[in-house]
């Protein structure tokens, strides 16, 4: 596999139960919770396609049929909107169905993120690919995936995205020990720890939900033992690749992201995403800002 080869495939794990949002997610996938006027998962797919990753594989599970339905056409609805002359709503409905080539495979057993990624092996084949977690929304004005793709093409191994968090928050994330690379914006990953205690954390650099993975990760995941929580952790597989720098696909580098990110798996961050994007929405922005000023003044 030559350096510089194009990367076109993205994997989006979406098999989680969404327990943090119960009871809202009892009958609806958490990925379908709306952020302003689109489900959260649509922002993630659009991000992948915008970076040139137009072959998208979703790893789904039971009760996730709504994801497939959302990205499928509804001819009767489109015909009704067209007959009404409601071109704006027609375009919004068609937007999801025209994003890219979206495929689906089921993760029959919820055995962790590492196992979800392993479910993509047959579809991906032996080429580098991206993994985008559906809980993480990256603001469309901030570049991340394109920078990671460029970095992977330079380094040839795997690339992760890191973000600085408050030290007391690091135990909620995977954490990275890194060192600078002369003349480059990216850093070398020396070690990774999944959800360390504050005292044991090697830094305040948290792994966020964007990865550019060398296909060698599949071989590593196949022999990765269950880790924290009894699940197969992608972090554990990346740790092995980070230390095995001389083998094919070895070495892990990282891009430190300093843009805007929303964690839609967290209730407060989810609400913040809705408010922030509503304020910036062309149709809703002015009304939302006016209401917010009045509302805040009453607090």
Automatic annotation (TrEMBL):
Keywords: Nucleotidyltransferase, Transferase
Keyword Aminoacyl-tRNA synthetase set for record: no
InterPro entries registered for this protein in UniProt: GalU_uridylyltTrfase_bac/arc, NTP_transferase_dom, Nucleotide-diphossugar_trans
Reaction(s) the record says it catalyses: alpha-D-glucose 1-phosphate + UTP + H(+) = UDP-alpha-D-glucose + diphosphate
Pfam family for this entry, one: NTP_transferase
EC number annotated for this UniProt entry: 2.7.7.9
Keyword Nucleotidyltransferase in annotation: yes
Domain Nucleotidyl transferase: from-to ranges: 9-277
One term of GO molecular function: UTP:glucose-1-phosphate uridylyltransferase activity
Family that this chain belongs to: Belongs to the UDPGP type 2 family.
Protein name: UTP--glucose-1-phosphate uridylyltransferase
Organism: Glutamicibacter bergerei
């Amino acid at each position: 596999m030559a350096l510089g080869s194009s990367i076109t495939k993205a994997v989006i794990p979406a098999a989680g139960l969404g327990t943090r949002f119960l009871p809202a997610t009892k009958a609806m996938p958490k990925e379908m919770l709306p952020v302003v006027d689109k489900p959260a998962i649509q922002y993630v797919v659009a991000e992948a396609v915008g970076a040139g990753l137009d072959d998208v594989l979703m790893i789904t599970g039971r009760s996730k049929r709504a994801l497939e339905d959302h990205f499928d056409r509804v001819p009767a609805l489109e015909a009704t909107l067209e007959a009404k002359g409601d071109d704006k709503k027609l375009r919004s409905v068609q937007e999801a169905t025209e994003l890219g080539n979206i495929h689906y495979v089921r993760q029959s057993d919820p055995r962790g993120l590492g196992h979800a990624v392993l479910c993509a092996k047959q579809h991906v084949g032996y080429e580098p690919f991206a993994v985008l977690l559906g809980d993480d929304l990256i603001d469309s004005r901030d570049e991340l995936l394109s920078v990671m793709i460029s970095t992977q093409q330079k380094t040839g191994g795997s690339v992760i995205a890191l973000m600085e968090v408050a030290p007391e928050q690091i135990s909620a994330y995977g954490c990275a020990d890194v060192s600078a690379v002369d003349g480059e914006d990216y850093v070398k990953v020396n070690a990774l720890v999944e959800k360390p205690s504050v005292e044991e954390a090697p830094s305040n650099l948290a792994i966020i939900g964007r990865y550019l993975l060398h296909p060698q990760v599949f071989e590593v995941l196949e022999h990765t033992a269950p880790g924290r929580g009894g699940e197969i952790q992608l972090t554990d597989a990346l740790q092995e690749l980070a230390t095995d720098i001389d083998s094919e696909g070895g070495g892990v580098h990282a891009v430190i992201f300093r843009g805007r990110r929303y964690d839609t798996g967290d209730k407060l961050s989810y609400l913040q995403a809705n408010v922030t994007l509503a304020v910036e929405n062309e149709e809703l922005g002015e009304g939302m800002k006016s209401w917010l000023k009045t509302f805040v003044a009453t607090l």
